[in-house]
Amino acid sequence: MLEPRNKKKNGIGSHQSSKMKNDEWLTPPEIINALGPFDLDPCSPINRPWDTASTHFSKVENGLTKDWFGRVWCNPPYGDQSKVWLEKLAAHKNGIALIFARTETTTFFDWAWEKAYGMLFIRGRLSFYTVEGIKAKANSGGPSVLIAFNESNFNSLIKSGIKGQIINLNLNKKYLKTIEPINEESFETSELNPI
Length: 195
What we know:
This protein has helices at about 30-35, 80-90, 105-115, 150-160, 170, and strands at about 40, 55, 70-75, 95-100, 120, 145-150, 165-170. It is an alpha/beta fold. The protein has one domain (about 30-175). This is Phage N-6-adenine-methyltransferase.
C-alpha cells in the first residue's frame, strides 16, 4: 500500500526549508574550480568561505545596477528573480549561469534556449553550501543546469569534467524554433501529414 507523501517542503527546490533565515546558498567549490577562473560574480553572498571570482558584488552593491565586465559567474537567487540575472548575462555575452533546470518556464525559453551558446545539464542533484562553508544536509531538490553564454564558456563546460549532458545550442539554432500553441480551429486536418 502506498503511503501518503509528506507534504512538508524542505529545500531550495523541496528538500531544505524554503523559509530559511538565510537565502544565500553557495555554489559547490568543485563547480567553480572546474569552470573558473571568473572575473566577476555579480550576485555573491556578502560573506563567503571561498571566492567565486576576482571581484564580487553582493546584494549590498546590487550587481544588477553595476556594469559587468570580463568573464562572469552567475548563480542567481532562485525563483522568479533568476530572469533578470539571465537577461543581464545574455546581454553581457560572457559568462556561465547556474540555475534550476526548469526547462518549461518562460524564463528558460526566453533567456536560456533562445540566448545561450550551450548548456550542461548536471547529472544528479547538487548540494549547495551555507555561507559558513557547511554542505547542506540534503540536495537542492531539483535538477541544475550550467548555461554558457559564448563559445569560450561553452568550451569550459565541455572541458570541466562535470558529469551531465551537454547541448550545443549554437549548432542547433537552425533546428530550434519556438512553436506557439495551436488553435485547433485554425487548421484543417487534411493539411496534416499522415503518419
